[in-house]
């Protein structure tokens, strides 16, 4: 599963939203000192125990600016939502994703949830695909929807989906795209309305 283009249209004050985003990504040792007979016993400091390395995608940290309800908060939310993509895809952890998804009409939200569930059900592994996102433009608040449209530059690392037996089901090279992200604050938190093709200029 690679580059996906699934488009939805929100009718109203002229903005079109949709979906365009490519489908991340352990032990310790110790030994007791050997004491030779009739020799002085020398205490030996134990070897440091290494921390286990992550075995899957790491959930991004939620930015403090998401507490704001203005353009700054909108930009922080849009970036965070996109950077959640590989985590959700790689873990099928939908708890937060379902909370942030706009309850009606967010095809991007539904597509990601369905795709992550399908990968997990097939016992496949989503590898790579790390996302670095940066809001390049925040448009004025659309008062009809109470939403901020934004253009967000997204750099995504190469990715692959691997079957249980190690077979590569699909693979994609690294990509860079500009996406139109629409977020709205419902009075409690930011919600993702949808994602589509952005303005690269």
Automatic annotation (TrEMBL):
<protein>
    <recommendedName>
        <fullName>DUF6318 domain-containing protein</fullName>
    </recommendedName>
</protein>
<feature type="compositionally biased region" description="Pro residues">
    <location>
        <begin position="47"/>
        <end position="57"/>
    </location>
</feature>
<dbReference type="Pfam" id="PF19843">
    <property type="entry name" value="DUF6318"/>
</dbReference>
<feature type="region of interest" description="Disordered">
    <location>
        <begin position="42"/>
        <end position="67"/>
    </location>
</feature>
<dbReference type="InterPro" id="IPR046281">
    <property type="entry name" value="DUF6318"/>
</dbReference>
<feature type="domain" description="DUF6318">
    <location>
        <begin position="59"/>
        <end position="193"/>
    </location>
</feature>
């Amino acid at each position: 599963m690679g580059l996906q283009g699934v488009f939805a249209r929100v009718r109203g004050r002229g903005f079109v939203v949709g979906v365009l985003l490519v489908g991340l990504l352990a032990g310790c040792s110790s030994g007791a000192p050997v004491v030779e007979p009739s020799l002085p016993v020398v205490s030996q400091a134990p070897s440091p125990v290494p921390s286990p390395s992550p075995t899957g995608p790491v959930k991004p940290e939620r930015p403090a600016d998401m507490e704001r309800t203005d353009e700054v908060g909108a930009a922080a939310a849009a970036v965070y939502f996109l950077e959640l993509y590989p985590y959700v895809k790689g873990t099928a952890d939908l708890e937060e994703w379902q909370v942030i998804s706009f309850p009606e009409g967010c095809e991007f939200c539904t597509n990601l949830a369905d795709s992550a569930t399908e990968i997990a059900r097939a016992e496949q592994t989503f590898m790579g695909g790390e996302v670095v996102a940066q809001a390049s433009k925040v448009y004025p608040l659309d008062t009809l929807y109470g939403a901020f449209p934004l253009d967000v530059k997204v750099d995504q690392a190469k990715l692959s989906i691997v079957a249980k037996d190690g077979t590569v089901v699909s693979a994609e090279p690294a990509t860079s795209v500009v996406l139109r992200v629409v977020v709205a604050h419902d009075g409690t938190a930011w919600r993702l309305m949808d994602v589509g093709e952005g303005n690269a200029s």
